[in-house]
Automatic annotation (TrEMBL):
Gene3D superfamilies: 3.30.530.20. This is SRPBCC family protein.
Length: 183
């Protein structure tokens, strides 16, 4: 056998090892960030519980000011929906599916492009003794084989986590600046 044959055999074995390793990764993923905001939960609630005010601090809309978005469904609360299309951040939809008034909101998050994915996003507010609020932003869902393979090379927690951190900072600035009331 030639050296080139050994090279291709070694390359094939390395590829099989990579695919095998990717297959052993967890079947679900979760990304979560928390931030203390010096504002009461009542100030933050309208900003995290409704889709129109969410656009005021959404880090993905700030990444692409040309993003096209459309609201549909209920005006507020469960059933309200936002669809977006962007050359920068992809396309998908966000729909409120559950709320615990003043405390938590759960959203169905569907991505169409660049990759199809169906996840859950959650915001939770925890009032603190000093009048501030801890805000938690979490996204979780199934990890497809493609996402497991990508996860070998890309740290999704770090990549998405940076966006969550930026969004929570935007929220903090909005709420602490006194402009927290919903339009």
């Amino acid at each position: 056998m030639s050296i080139l044959s050994y090279f291709f055999i070694a390359l094939g074995l390395a590829l099989l090892a990579l695919l095998g390793y990717a297959a052993t990764r967890p079947d679900e993923f979760s990304v979560e960030r928390r931030l203390r905001v010096a504002a009461p939960a009542a100030t933050l609630w309208p900003l995290v519980s409704e889709l129109r005010p969410f656009s005021r601090w959404n880090p993905y809309e700030r990444k692409d000011p040309l993003m096209k978005g459309a609201y549909s469904g209920a005006e507020r609360g469960v059933g309200s929906r936002y669809d977006w299309d962007s050359q920068v951040v992809g396309a998908g939809s966000l729909e409120i599916v559950d709320q615990q008034p003043g405390q938590a909101v759960r959203l169905k998050l569907d991505f169409i492009k660049p990759f199809e994915a169906h996840n859950v996003a959650e915001f939770a507010l925890q009032p603190l003794a000093d009048g501030a609020t801890e805000v938690r932003w979490r996204m979780h869902g199934p990890a497809t084989f493609l996402s497991k393979l990508m996860g070998v090379f890309i740290d999704m927690d770090q990549m998405v986590g940076r966006d969550f951190e930026a969004g929570l900072q935007n929220l903090r600035e909005l709420a602490e600046g006194g402009a927290g009331a919903a339009p």
